[in-house]
Every structure is written in C-alpha cells, then in structure tokens.
Inverse folding.
C-alpha cells in the first residue's frame, strides 16, 4: 500500500467544570477505550479514573510547579500516538470549544490526516450559573449571554477586547479565568459606560467542594 | 409537627443537545432515581430510557400537535409531586440555564420551599460548534462567544434586542432557535453595521443523525 496509514484516532473531550458527575457518557466511553490520555492538570482525578488500567496517562503540567507541555509538544504527541494506531483522548477542562485552544489542536491533526472527534462538555460558565443559583438568561431580563476570556492572550495587543461593545451587550457577561484580572475587566467595563452598580458574582472552583461565590 | 414537610426534591436536568451520549453521569443518576419525569418533547427518547421502569413519565407536549403544558401547569406539577415526597426530574433540552426558562421554575419551587438542584448540561450552541467543526473561540480570532435567542419572546417589545451592540460584539454570535428567524436577525445585524460577508453557518438537528450544516 502506498498510502500512509493512520488507523488511530484522537478524541478531544470536554471533562466538564470539575464535578465528576458532569462528564458525559460519551466522554467516559472514550476514556475507557483510550490507549493514551493527555489531560489538563485541572481535570478532576475522579474523571481520569475512568481510563482503563494500562492506558498511558500524561499530565500536561501544572502552572507554577513542574514542567508544562507547550502546545506544539501536545500536538506532536497526539499525532505520534495516533499515527502508531493508538486511540488518544485529549481531556480538557470544561468544553473544548470555549477558550480551550481547540482550533490549534484540530488544525495540527487535520494537517497530518489524523482522524479526530470533538466530544463537547459542560462549560464552566453555565455550571457556575447552576451552582451559584444565577440564571444566565431570563425570559424578561436577559435574552443573551456572552462568554469572554478574562486572560487576554499575551500575543495580542493589550486592550484588543472591545469593552465599549461588551459594556453595551444586551445580556449577561461571563468572564472565564477572570478571578485574578477582575479589577481590570470591571474597571474597563465601567469606564466604557457599564453602570457601577450592575449586579456581579465571582465563582471560584465551580462545582467542586471548595466552591466560593461572592456577590457584589 | 407544625411545619409542613417537603421531603421530595426536584432535579432540573439538562439533557444535552440530542446525542444520547451527551447526557451527564449525574443526569443519568437523577433519572434512575426519579419517581416522576417531566420532559420536553425534544429530548431524545434514548435519554428518557434511563428512567427506572415504574416512573411516571410526562411529556410536556409537542408544538403543533397535542396539548402543550403551560409554564404554570409545569410548575404546579413539580410542586405537587415533590410535596408528596416524590423525586422529580424536570428534563430539559441542552442546558437548563440557556433559554430554558429556568428562573421561572426555580422561583416557583423556592416560593413553596421545595428542595431543588440544577444539573447543567451541554448546551446546543457549543455542541453545534463541535459537530460542525467550527471553533467558537480562537486564540487569535475570537476572545468571546455570545449566545442569543433567535425567538424574541412575544411578551417583550419587538426589537428589544440591541442589534447595534450585537453587531459590534467582539467574538462569535450563536443564535438559538434561530432557523426560522434567520432572515430577520441577519438583516438586523447587517443593518446595524455587521459586514454582509461575515462567515456564518446554520446547524439543524445538531448531534442527531439528521444534522445539516449550511455555511454561508
């Protein structure tokens, strides 16, 4: 056969916001079949436990401690394992499409002709609403909800987020990874005309035992 | 005892976008314990099948065919069953927080002192991105994603959605229940200054065998 064979497959799986009950049936099914699991360090160990014994488990590193895998290294490992015919699960916190750098991983797989499937998950912003008792849409009050990164990527120009447009957004705003930058984005929103008495809440460790909710 | 007792409980569960693999473990657990299940007619029958035999299954009606339960009727049934000590699952398509009228149901339960829990689900907009291969956020291109109803509630003023602000939104826009109204909201966005050549896609029956994706 002249064609290069890629009998393996990569599943890009959303693990949900943390609570081990919030992974999907399909996510668990992928984990039980995986030969290799590459997981974000934030994924709950009780979810990783669904992988079969004997699977190769690769933690992609914790900020501020041991080595963190770079995006090209992650891409290379997925391509390499799938090319060897292995079933690979790339397990991501929340939903892979929301601030998960999914496009870069999908592009790398597609460029090498690797078969892949995206398994969506419960995104943290919606779970935060559920667990903190905050309806993100409301028949009378909010016809829309926006999810915005609280960590403007350092490669982009600072201030590339249009806070004028965000301040006028006709619905609820949810900032992801926004705890450490809360002072910045709240100031930017108020400066752009958002009333300073707009109700707000900060949710930490959503759906996990250490969850904290601060309303302000 | 002078206090009225409410030993039952209501679980407001997101069933995900349709694919029976996209329900969460916690959602399945609630279904297996339920005495009464009130489900939207759009929920996949394969998901409803997780309920134990003997549970009372109540379909809330299909648009355009038999009777549709009104919101007050749904609230009354949940309160009544839980007050009798039953475990009730209110099964909703997608995620309960996103255009699911969750606030009205939660208010009705809270007003009667009924214990409840919200179990988030995979919302259709994110699944649409996964299944249609469209990254909704991108490190370089989109720092935010907004979910907007395509069915402005008839009780509100027509045109109450601020399309000027939506047209300037710095990220991806996802219109829910927007297929029949696509001509209206695209025209409103373009009139508000959104370039007419903005890439767009329409996804029908997301994650189900009949899924269709049209890019334009």
């Amino acid at each position: 056969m002249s064609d290069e064979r890629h009998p393996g497959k990569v599943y890009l799986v959303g693990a949900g916001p943390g609570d081990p009950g919030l992974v999907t049936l399909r996510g668990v099914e992928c984990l039980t079949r995986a030969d290799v699991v590459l997981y974000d360090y934030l994924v709950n160990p009780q979810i990783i436990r669904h992988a079969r014994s004997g699977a190769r488990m690769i933690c992609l590193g914790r900020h501020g401690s041991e080595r963190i895998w770079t995006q090209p290294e992650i891409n290379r490992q997925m391509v390499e394992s799938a090319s060897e015919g292995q079933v690979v699960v790339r397990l991501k916190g929340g939903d892979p499409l929301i601030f998960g750098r999914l496009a870069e991983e999908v592009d790398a797989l597609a460029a090498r002709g690797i078969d892949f499937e995206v398994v969506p998950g419960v995104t943290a912003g919606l779970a935060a609403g559920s667990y903190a008792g905050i309806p993100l849409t409301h028949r009378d009050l909010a016809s829309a909800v926006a999810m915005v990164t609280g960590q403007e990527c350092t490669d982009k120009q600072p201030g590339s987020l249009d806070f004028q447009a965000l301040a006028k957004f006709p619905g609820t705003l949810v900032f992801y990874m926004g705890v450490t930058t809360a002072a910045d984005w709240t100031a930017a929103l108020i400066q752009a005309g958002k009333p300073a008495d707009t109700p707000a809440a900060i949710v930490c460790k959503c759906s996990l035992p250490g969850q904290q909710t601060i309303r302000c």
